[in-house]
Amino acid sequence: MEELEHKYEVIIDMTEEKQKLPDDVKAELKESGMMDDKGKLKLKGVSPKMLKKMKQEFVKCPVLKEDIQFIQCFVCPNFQSRVMGKVLCKGDSLK
Ligand code: SF4
Description:
Elements: E1 8-14, H1 23-31, H2 48-54, E2 57-61, E3 66-69, H3 70-74, E4 79-83, E5 86-89
Antiparallel strand pairs: 1-2, 1-5, 2-3, 4-5
Iron/sulfur cluster is lined by residues 10, 59, 61, 63-64, 68, 73, 76, 78-79, 87, 89.
């Protein structure tokens, strides 16, 4: 497989704390059909078990300079792929 062009490799961390998605991210997810009206996530190819795990994961985003839930990162335009516990991130400015 060809190496994807990316700027950052961001390590995925786990937290036991309950993470909440920001409202604007929820709205985006709903708009793109990845979340239903009840706020339940529907990500293609992601099993409920994986989803449960994903909800506890976060990354220290090098672009937004804050901790971002993995789910938000997963749907970010900079997200390229997930390889061995790391996110390959394009690193473009998000503003
Ligand atoms: S893909 Fe998006 S959210 Fe994830 S680390 Fe890169 S800029 Fe941050």
